Amino acid sequence: MASKTPRRSSGRRSKWATAALIGIGLLVTGGVYAGASAAMAATETPTAATQLTVDDGKKLFQANCATCHGLNLEGTNDGPSLFGVGELAVEFQVATGRMPLQMQGPQAPQKPVQFTQEQIEAMAAWVQSVAPGPTYPDDEVLDGEGDVANGAELFRINCAMCHNVAAAGGALTEGKYAPALTETSPLHMYAAMVTGPQNMPVFNDLNLSTEEKRDIISALLFLQENESAGGFSLGSLGPVSEGLFIWIFGIGTLIGITVWITAKSN
Amino acid sequence: MAHEEDALEHERASWKPSPGLAVAVPDPVQNPGLPPHRARMTDKDPAAMTRAVRTVYTLFYLSLAGSIWATAAYMLFPIESGRIVDIRNNNLFIGLGIGLALLALGLGAIHWSKAVMSDKEFIEPRHATRGRDATREGAVQAFRDANEESGFGRRTAIRGSLIAAVAASILPGITLFRGLAPHSDKSTEEGALAGDPVALLKQTMWKEGERLAHDPSGEPIRAADVTLGSAVHVIPESLAELGHSEGYLEEKAKAIVLLMRLLPEDLPAEYNNLDWAYDGIVAYSKVCTHVGCPVALYEQQTHHLLCPCHQSQFDVSRSAAVIFGPAARPLPQLPITVDAEGYLVAKSDFTEPVGPSFWERH
């Protein structure tokens, strides 16, 4: 259908002018904001730290953690003692942003990480030197080359009741929850199993062998890396999200078609 | 309709208003009749009719294309490499083809009938519910004649044998389906249990001296290896040797146990039977007493167990007492001790049936 509107010779703006002006304005604003935030991020990146010593770790711990955990890991009324938790617990709690704790509550949520990896390792080394505990694993345990099928079976038996069979997380009692493992790094999966953070049971080597942990990590990495065979996973929450989807869109479509079938043609 | 000239005539003739209930109103509601006929665009405008016809056959050709595409997709996206993404593509593209084929067929048919087929209103009166007296007598007479001619009422030998034969014909079905039910075999102990669901529900594989083993490997567990804060998923050691055809899943469903170690001060003697625990290690059935979901969401600091199905909560530090939710009873506790080699063993079977209630539970 060809437009028969005559081209205006002068005076009036085109009907597209307003839309074009808004579009340009939005683009400019967005561009400036993106540039500015990139610049901010660039200035926030710390300069590569020189090797931090165990002493630096002690100072960092006493400045940032001792209020609750005590100057020598002995704990206070506000926080548990850290004897025997080991460097792996420090790595898990600090490098996922759970510590420093933002407030007392049912569970420490994940937050943006507050320290550089060097600082975390220095604190971990100091905690380990005062009262030893679980340590960093061999790289082989985290390589994701284990037996995926066996790992998935072990995951279903030991982990899935809280973390969901598709590792999408789930609710526990009184505000606690098992987090989703869809973004978790292999090191933090291992650390969580070994140290049993918060209300998670401990799956040390006497319960699940190192090889079995490697299998479980491989299965979780497989889930992270491979797209869902069934198409849209809708959060992998089972009947909650899938039921909601089909009630709204499936039944909505059926109602629409029914209305169309019964309406008279005009 | 076709078989009666005025369907309601004889009903109208015989109808009398019920005395006393009818209210005569001065302005009774008048039958408004049919709304005026409204011509469709396709009736008024030949171009619109051409468009509608084109839409209908385009939809039918789309349906044809969908069917051809589904057939082609079956060959283009085979499930041969064993990769999961192949199954996904195969399902997706065949499904899109079949979906398009059926949907376009339906839409085309509906659009045809709504926009193209003739559009006239007409009234189709209901025929009377009650037949005319003559029709009713005719039907009775037909049965009477049939009885007379077949001799069904008169020849009692035939009638009796027919009834007996029909009744007997369901006997094989009853026999066959009865054979599907479990049967007791009194010669062995296990066989005697097989046909008795109540006895089956009251016992599990656990017995005195049966070692507690990891699920699913079947490796026995030493008491020294159960650390504070751990939760170990446990099966009877001899279960791991059973094959799937030998009742592995049936036995596992009853015998699964969760093993936890608590500090001695978290297991107060007034709430716990410490004879059934070993050095702070306790073992509870994983089958919820509500409707039988596996209860294994253990919180190691609160010592609460949560059932994911209906949010029943059990307090492990108090004999797994119910502290929230619909479960009616605590989880059954498996009495445990250690054997000479330090491995955890059961002292006996559970002392009550595991899992949800059933009629003859007590």
UniProtKB/TrEMBL annotation, chain A:
Binding positions for heme c 2 per the UniProt entry: 159, 162-163
InterPro entries per record: bc1_cytC-su, Cyt_c-like_dom, Cyt_c-like_dom_sf, Cytochrome_c_Oxidase_Subunit
Subcellular location per the Swiss-Prot or TrEMBL entry: Cell membrane
Keywords: Cell membrane, Electron transport, Heme, Iron, Membrane, Metal-binding, Repeat, Respiratory chain, Translocase, Transmembrane, Transmembrane helix, Transport
Primary location group: membrane
Catalytic activity: a quinol + 2 Fe(III)-[cytochrome c](out) = a quinone + 2 Fe(II)-[cytochrome c](out) + 2 H(+)(out)
Enzyme class per UniProt: translocase
Membrane topology value: Multi-pass membrane protein
One MF term in the entry's GO annotations: iron ion binding
Transmembrane segments: 244-263
Reported modifications of this chain: Binds 2 heme c groups covalently per subunit.
Record EC number: 7.1.1.8
Oligomeric and partner information: The cytochrome bc1 complex is composed of a cytochrome b (QcrB), the Rieske iron-sulfur protein (QcrA) and a diheme cytochrome c (QcrC) subunit.
Listed PANTHER family: CBB3-TYPE CYTOCHROME C OXIDASE SUBUNIT FIXP, CYTOCHROME BC1 COMPLEX CYTOCHROME C SUBUNIT
Protein name listed in UniProt: Cytochrome bc1 complex cytochrome c subunit
Automatic annotation (TrEMBL), chain B:
UniProt topology in membrane: Multi-pass membrane protein
Domain Rieske: 254-345
Cofactor requirement: [2Fe-2S] cluster
Main location: membrane
Highest taxon of the lineage: Bacteria
Cellular component aspect of the GO annotation: plasma membrane
Molecular functions per Gene Ontology: 2 iron, 2 sulfur cluster binding; metal ion binding; monooxygenase activity; oxidoreductase activity, acting on paired donors, with incorporation or reduction of molecular oxygen
Compositionally biased region (Basic and acidic residues): 1-14
InterPro entries xref list: QcrA_N, Rieske_2Fe-2S, Rieske_2Fe-2S_sf, Rieske_Fe-S_prot, Rieske_Fe-S_prot_C
Annotated region described as Disordered, given as residue ranges: 1-45
Alphabetized Gene3D superfamilies for the sequence: Rieske [2Fe-2S] iron-sulphur domain (2.102.10.10)
TM helices/strands, residue ranges: 59-79, 91-112
Function: Iron-sulfur subunit of the cytochrome bc1 complex, an essential component of the respiratory electron transport chain required for ATP synthesis. The bc1 complex catalyzes the oxidation of menaquinol and the reduction of cytochrome c in the respiratory chain. The bc1 complex operates through a Q-cycle mechanism that couples electron transfer to generation of the proton gradient that drives ATP synthesis.
UniProt record similarity statement: Belongs to the Rieske iron-sulfur protein family.
Protein name: Cytochrome bc1 complex Rieske iron-sulfur subunit
Organism name: Microbacterium saccharophilum
Organism classification: Bacteria, Bacillati, Actinomycetota, Actinomycetes, Micrococcales
